[in-house]
Description:
Layout: H1 3-13, H2 20-49, E1 57-60, E2 64-67, E3 72-75, E4 81-84, E5 103-109, H3 112-115, H4 125-134, E6 141-146, H5 154-163, E7 172-177, E8 199-202, E9 208-211, H6 213-219, H7 222-229, H8 231-236, H9 238-256, H10 267-279, H11 281-311, E10 315-320, H12 330-343, E11 346-349, H13 351-360, E12 366-367, E13 370-371, H14 373-390
Parallel strand pairs: 5-6, 5-7, 7-10, 10-11
Antiparallel strand pairs: 1-2, 3-4, 8-9, 12-13
Helix pairs in contact: 4-14, 5-11, 10-11, 11-12
Amino acid sequence: MTQATLEKTEAKTVTPPPKRARSRWLALGEFCLFLIVGLLLLEPILKLGGVVDEENYTIDRKVGWTPVPNRSATYRNEGYSRYTINSLGMRDVERSIAKPPNTYRIAVLGCSVTEGKQVSLDETYCRILEKQLNQAGGPIKYEVLNFAVSAYTLGQEYLRLKHFAMQFKPDLVIFTVRPNALLYMGPDLRNGFFSARPVFGVMPDGTLVEDHHFQNHWLESAEGKRIQSTAWLSTHSHLYALVGKSAYNLAEYKKGFGQPKRHRKSIAGFERFKGDLEDDVQLKRTMNTALDYLGKVAHAIVREAKSICQKENAKFVLVYLPATVKYRYGLEEEIIESLCKQLQVDYVDCNPDFDRIEKSSKKKLYIEVHPSKFGHEKMAALLYSYLERSGLLKAAGQAEDTKNVN
Length: 406
């Protein structure tokens, strides 16, 4: 065999190099493995940093939405707080549904002003009020239970009282009304999560009507079904929430691209709206007509809420929450006060006291539109003073009749 033939034979017997396709599959497998490990490590990092953990509400067909029980979250939009929703779905310390012996319970219904995510839990007026009531000691222990939920309307407060808060057997119910509450009672046609709520109307004879049409329409939409099917992931996975929020922000950006910048809902925005009302007589007339009807709806809601309390021997008081003057509409204040007089409901308007404090104090009462820590302290002090002198803290059946307090 010649040398050339031998070299050819040896060349044929050499093992061929591994196929490139196999190398690609191996590289892809390694990439997927590292991606999975990276994602698993990213989730606790996002949780530790409190990134995208604001998704703390779940759909509730009776009320619209409720806080997710045992949910820890960070609030950064206006003020700052780290907070935990208790096991019963309240922004409060742990409570038992059964009322302990020798306990006087105060149930507070409200919206974001009372929920107070802008400050820490112990800085909310509900917690401060509870501590003030218990300072003197004595055989009776006071509990101030916070049932407030952000973005709730008066109708939703009523439903939360009816379906949830009354289970705790409160001795006193504080039904709070935020400024511009009447304006938010109609259907929200923006077609989002916080538009999926029951709305209320009133029949000619004054009967309250509960309507879930707009709520059910959104829940059956593609977006509504998607949110319902991914509810667990949205509230338990920071990574999923981050991706979802980014996708939502991108969609909103594309939707508004090239359009005039939307004015943020704020004190400045409402001040501009009030200016438009003063300049446009027809707009003001339409606004007042709408408020007149919504006032009748509010009348029916407050009437039913008071009736529920009376059946359980619980006292009932309505508190008109404070807001800076620029964020108030005078006709609404008159309507709220008037319906309380008609229904013989104890009434507390916090605004005159807050107006005096705002003029005399250098400390800010508000963080944009919500109470600051100082504001919550003043709210607690005002309510403590009112409850002490009104006789509402006496045992059931012993409280004297009180007149409306302005």
